[in-house]
Every structure is written in structure tokens, then in C-alpha cells.
Write a structure and sequence with these properties.
Number of strands: 11
Largest sheet: 7 strands, mixed
CATH architecture: 3-Layer(aba) Sandwich
Structural class: alpha/beta
Oligomer: single chain
Number of helices: 7
CATH class: Alpha Beta
Strand content: 25-35%
Order of helices and strands: EHEHEHHEEHEHEEEHEE
């Protein structure tokens, strides 16, 4: 069995967290979509004339057509060192698909390091509600392996208290954390 973080099991359109980015965006801001995936959020933000750079795994970027990637001024893979600073980092449905706690912690630290002073971190993760409805579910680490077949995904359910604690533990000032249908959204400032 292969666990692929890129198989998020999210098939919806634009995430609620991307809509929150649109609300806090100011002209001149630059947004990094950390875990851009199939570019749904990035494309939406671009359509609103928001400057967006993207980051994803080498595997995901290789699966994305060069024509789709051509719209983006900066494209990073997860192995890249990032020296730029971002006014907003969007991290939508990324942490919940990473099986190792240490790697999840590293992602949040990396996001914190690349956010400008007074910049924003917009985080969205899965709640147990959406995960537990899956018929093909097996406990694994602090979450579940989801799916069937040789390639599956990991899903760690979060609650609002965990998201708030995660943000505080990583030196963010929490603006708001709330539950949506199948997710938890947190907005924090550096």
C-alpha cells in the first residue's frame, strides 16, 4: 500500500479558507498557496486579481500541466528553500493528509518563517465528521488510512481546540478559529 498525501479525498470546488483569503487581502499583498494541489484555490484567487504563488510536492507539480502552471510567477516544491516573505499563507487541507506529526509541525513552522511581520496564516483542515463517513477507513497513527486499492490517503481529523493550540504553539496570534461543515478554519497573524 502506498500513502499519497496528494490524494486528499477533497473534490469540492474552492475552499472556505480561500474565500477568507479574499476577505483579508489588500492590494499589493502576495499570497502563497501552500499545498496548491489541483490549483482550485489558486485559480480562484487569480480570478480575483490576487497575486498568488504556489507550493506543492514534486509529485503533484509533475502531474499538473505546464499550461496550468504557466499562470504562476513563482512555483515551489516542498524541497525548495523559500527566501521570499508572504503577506498571506493559505494552507488548505494540507496538514490533515500528512501521516507524521513531526512533518506537520515542520510545515506550520515553515509557514510561520515565510510570513511577513503582521502577515496572515489561513489554515483549513478536516474535521472528523467528513472523515468518519468514509466506508474504507483504517486507524493509522493519530488518524486514518482512507480509500481502497494500492494507493490511499491519510486523514487526521482536527477539532477547533487543536487548531487553536497549534497556532498558539507556533507563535501565531489567533484571530478566529471556527468549524465549517467538514472542516476547521483558523485565521492567525504573525
Amino acid at each position: 500500500m502506498i500513502i499519497r498525501p496528494e490524494n486528499t479525498a477533497i473534490v469540492n470546488g474552492v475552499s472556505k479558507s480561500a474565500l477568507e483569503v479574499e476577505k483579508i487581502y489588500s492590494p499589493g499583498f502576495i499570497v502563497l498557496d501552500y499545498g496548491a494541489g489541483k490549483l482550485r484555490n489558486s485559480n480562484y484567487l487569480l480570478s480575483k486579481e490576487i497575486i498568488v504563488h504556489i507550493l506543492d510536492t514534486p509529485y503533484q507539480l509533475e502531474r499538473t500541466s505546464p499550461q496550468k502552471l504557466a499562470k504562476y510567477e513563482k512555483i515551489y516544491n516542498t524541497n525548495d528553500e523559500i527566501y521570499s516573505k508572504y503577506d498571506i499563507v493559505l494552507c488548505s487541507f494540507v496538514l490533515n493528509v500528512i501521516p507524521e506529526q513531526q512533518i506537520r509541525d515542520n510545515v506550520v513552522r515553515k509557514c510561520n518563517n515565510i510570513i511577513t511581520k503582521d502577515g496572515y496564516f489561513v489554515l483549513e483542515v478536516r474535521r472528523s465528521r467528513g472523515i468518519m463517513e468514509n466506508k474504507n477507513l483504517a486507524p493509522y497513527n493519530d488518524g486514518f488510512i482512507v480509500g481502497k486499492g494500492e494507493v490511499r490517503t491519510f486523514q487526521k481529523p482536527y477539532n477547533d481546540k487543536e487548531v487553536e493550540a497549534l497556532l498558539i504553539a507556533n507563535d501565531f496570534t489567533v484571530i478566529k478559529v471556527w468549524n465549517e461543515n467538514d472542516s476547521v478554519i483558523g485565521i492567525a497573524k504573525k
